[in-house]
Amino acid sequence: MKTNHSIAKDLLEEVSWLESENGKGAYYLFPHQTTGISTSKLAKDLITNHRVALVPGSAFGSDYKDFFRISFANVNEEQLKEAFARLKKAI
User: Fold this and answer.
1) C-alpha distances in Å from residue 61, one per residue of 48, 49, 74, 82
2) Span 66-79, pLDDT tens digits
3) Is residue 56 helix, strand or coil?
4) pTM value?
5) CA 5 → CA 1, 12, 41, 50, 55, distances in Å?
C-alpha cells in the first residue's frame, strides 16, 4: 500500500509549475514554484479561487520565498487526487 507521501510525490510530478523536491517529510512536501508570482499572492488565489490551501515558504524564512509547504497529514487518497487536480488547473 502506498503512503500519502509517495502518492503526493507522484501527483506533484503532474503539476507543471511546481518542482519536486527530495524531502523525506512524513506529512508534507516543500516544492519550489516557478510561476514568478509571489507565494503569498499565489496562496491567496489558490485558497480563494481553487479551494486549496498551501503555506507560503516565506513563513519558514526568506530563503524559501519561492516554495510552498503542502501538508497531507489528515487526508485520504481521493482528497489528495482532488487537491492536486485543482493545483494542475490553477495556473
Assistant:
1) 24, 26, 25, 29
2) 999 999 888 999 99
3) strand
4) 0.87
5) 12, 10, 26, 22, 17
- What's the rounded Cα separation, in Å, for the pair 17 and 90? 10
Tell me the sheet residues that pair with 28.
71
Residue 81 has pLDDT above 70, yes or no: yes
| Location of C-alpha cell 503569498 | 40
Residues 6+ apart with CB under 8 A from 5: 25, 26, 27, 29, 72
φ, ψ dihedrals at 78, nearest 5° = -65, -40
Contacts 24+ apart (CB under 8 A), 13-19: 14/84, 14/88, 15/84, 15/87, 15/88, 16/88, 16/91, 17/91, 18/68, 18/87
Calculate the CA dihedral of residues 12, 81, 42, 56 and round it to 10 degrees: -70
